[in-house]
Design a protein that fits this description.
Shape: globular
Strand content: 5-15%
Number of helices: 6
Oligomer: single chain
Largest sheet: 7 strands, parallel
Distance between the termini: 25 Å
Radius of gyration: 17 Å
Strand order of the largest sheet: 3-2-1-4-5-6-7
Order of helices and strands: EHEHEHEHEHEHE
Number of strands: 7
Length: 284
């Protein structure tokens, strides 16, 4: 795996961030992840599956034997096509679903389209997120925190509400929360709020769906080198990004993939309502 022990050069992108302009390029496990059939025959839907953590999870799921649908913004088409090519190289079906997750109708439709395309749904990964650096709550426009909550929370509610009746015993729902849910940064106040809410969502839904044999868990990443980072309007932070962790570096998306595979697989058959930290040693 291509660890990056130093900080990152100053760089900035418009939202949403894309993979191609990033320096250095993230490691999604393209050359390193080896599957062993742990998700053979399963059908997965990953929001934000075009890049970053979502791409790493899509590659890993495909190499473990799953067909993978990915939801993404139309502006991220190039990243989505690249991810689809890795899924197909693993011999699995890829299904691309462009659209805006802040739109309720789109969120409902993408579940229906995935089920129609694959004949069912076994693993739902709620990974898409939006964040931006904030210069104080007093300067935070309503339309901006509305975008955060609609992307990070409303879409999750809409998609899962539609998916639940279509999930069978043994299915797995995985949310991407964050270390920010537990140790929030002032500059990410609305993002951190949404991530804390995702933890409550995960635990409450796990309690609801347990009797049906459907597991619900969360992964809480620490600082991970994804397109979201250079698109967060904090170029001055990149030279030290991730160096405040006990491991002394930012993580790569590929370092998250194993956590999602575990939670999606039968190895986690007695794990539900859990928040799995992948934080470089930062405590939750």
């Amino acid at each position: 795996m291509d660890y990056h022990d130093d900080g990152f050069p100053k760089q900035e992108q418009e939202q949403p961030g894309l993979t191609a302009p990033m320096d250095p390029q993230p490691d999604h496990g393209e050359d390193t992840y080896e599957g062993s059939g742990r998700l053979a025959g399963r059908r997965a839907l990953i929001t934000g599956g075009d890049s970053g953590i979502g791409r790493a999870v899509a590659i890993a799921f495909a190499r473990e034997g799953a067909d993978v649908a990915i939801a993404y913004l139309p502006e991220e088409q190039a990243d989505a096509e690249a991810t689809a090519s890795w899924i197909e190289k693993a011999g699995r079906r890829a299904f691309l679903i462009p659209g805006d997750l802040t739109d309720e109708e789109h969120c409902t439709r993408l579940v229906d389209d995935t089920v129609e395309q694959f004949g069912g749904l076994d693993v739902l990964v709620l990974n898409a997120a939006y964040q931006e650096n904030r210069d104080g709550l007093e300067n935070l426009p309503t339309e901006e925190f509305d975008r955060v909550f609609r992307t990070n929370l409303y879409s999750m509610m809409w998609i899962t509400r539609r998916a639940i009746p279509r999930l069978q015993r043994g299915a797995s729902i995985i949310t991407t929360s964050s270390v920010q849910a537990f140790t929030p940064s002032p500059g990410l106040i609305d993002y951190a709020m949404s991530k804390a809410a995702q933890v409550a969502f995960t635990k409450a839904l796990a309690a609801q769906l347990g009797e049906r044999g459907i597991r619900v868990n969360a992964v809480a990443p620490g600082p991970i080198w994804t397109p979201l980072i250079p698109a967060t309007s904090w170029p001055d932070k990149l030279p030290t990004f991730g160096q405040d962790t006990p491991l002394g570096r930012a993580g790569q998306p590929a370092e998250l993939a194993g956590a999602y595979v575990y939670l999606a697989s039968d190895a986690a058959s007695y794990t539900s309502g859990a928040v799995l930290p992948v934080t470089g040693g930062k405590p939750l």
